[in-house]
Amino acid sequence: MASRHALVVGGGIGGLAAAIGLHRVGWQVTVLERASELTAIGAGISLWPNAQRALAELGVNARIAPQSGGGLVDWRGRRLASWDADAFVRSHGLPLGAIHRAKLIEALRSALPAESLKTGVEVTAAEPSGIVRCDDGELEADLIVAADGINSPIRQQLFPAARVAYSGGAAFRGIAKLPLSPSLSTTWAAGTEIGILPLPDDEVYWWVCEARPAGIGHEDNRAYLREKYGRWHEPIGQLIDATPEILRHDLQHLATPLPSYVRGKIALLGDSAHAMPPFLGQGGCQALEDAVVLAEHAGKSTVEAALRGYDTERRPRTQKVTKASMRAGASGPLLRNPAAVALRAAFTRLLPSAVTTRIGASVSRWEPPKLTPVPPRTR
């Protein structure tokens, strides 16, 4: 019996995870990646327990750094709230984790057969009938997974009214290597959030989010950040100085909730379906959830039924998480009114750590469906 064939457009976290899941349940899979090689920007990613469970169900082994404690502080380093790692595990089921994006990409890539990945392939169009048009010809598949990012050409083709919008802030990001790894922390000030997230091997992922108009650039990101935040609490200045490359980009999200994540034989997945701002740290996590759910349905149903089940299951949840992320941004890094910022700090200081560690548990307690591994069949 011939195996069914899926074409996955995009070799990022969501696309690779989808390919792994489909391969695991018996599909023949080909990943089409535009870049000539798989790379990842110099940044980290937080992996909430829901994402870690998804990776485990996919059979992906990644070296994740569990976070052992920390807190929320003001710009001087004064504690606003404590973050209790043991209480977090009781509420969420697993520790909060973190990993370098490049290492996560490599772990995902290693879980796929080498012949499944085709790089340097430019996809120009995808048809609901199962046809993918590339720069060098056409391919046909039983299923097309569009994991081609926030500016997804396939989504634009299927839903031309969908709009990507500015989320209200810009982010600077980097990874530094420090001999004494600091603990997890988030620093709040008016219109600013600075996050510190320890990674394995003495690496530290950090970011600065600023509420400001879109499109503002700087000749020297390091000089700008050093001037503005160099006198804030340590190790902020040390991290800025120790980072080889500091990235900056405007934060965007998909402002138009899609009426469906599927069309014919095409499934939208990850940012192409529900790009969200990073204020809950769930963008990549939700893509990993998508991958497991799609694979679970595809492993036991016809393509039509599988895509219907995937859309029914994933669209309400991811659109709800997107809205929650927007609300988190409005009350967090995008909050600029001085009186509101002072009120937020006062209120936060009153919260017991048991309460603060439960934040996000309604999302992160998600359990993946079980995948039944099937040996790949030949055509």
Characterise the protein shown here:
- A hairpin with a 4-residue loop joins strand 15 and strand 16 (203-211).
- The N and C termini lie close together (7 Å).
- The chain has a domain at 5-66 and 97-165 and 254-331: FAD/NAD(P)-binding domain.
- The protein has a 7-stranded mixed sheet, with helices on both faces. A 6-stranded mixed sheet has the order 8-2-1-12-19-18. A 3-stranded antiparallel sheet has the order 3-7-4.
- It is of the alpha/beta class and 379 residues long.
- The protein has helices at 13-24, 49-58, 85-92, 101-110, 153-158, 221-229, 236-242, 271-274, 283-298, 303-331, 338-350, 353-356, 361-364, and strands at residues 5-9, 28-33, 44-47, 65-66, 70-73, 79-83, 97-100, 117-119, 123-126, 131-134, 137-140, 143-146, 164-177, 184-189, 192-198, 203-211, 247-254, 262-263, 266-268.
- It is 35% helix and 26% strand.
- The radius of gyration is 21 Å and the shape is globular.
- The longest helix is centred in the last third of the chain and has 29 residues, at 303-331.
Low-confidence stretches: none
Kindly, what is the distance between the CA atoms of the first and last residues, rounded to a whole number of angstroms? 7 Å
The computed structural class is: alpha/beta
Number of helices: 13
Give the overall form.
Answer: globular
CATH class (first level) name of one domain = Alpha Beta
The overall pLDDT, averaged over residues, is: 94
Sheet with most strands: 7 strands, mixed
Global Rg: 21 Å
CATH-level-4 superfamily name of one domain: FAD/NAD(P)-binding domain
Q: Within the CATH hierarchy, at the fold level, what is the topology of one domain?
A: FAD/NAD(P)-binding domain
Tell me the strand percentage band: 25-35%
- Helicity level, as a percent range? 25-40%
Number-wise, the strands total 19
The CATH architecture of one domain: 3-Layer(bba) Sandwich
Biggest β-sheet: strands ordered side by side in the sheet:
6-5-14-15-16-13-17
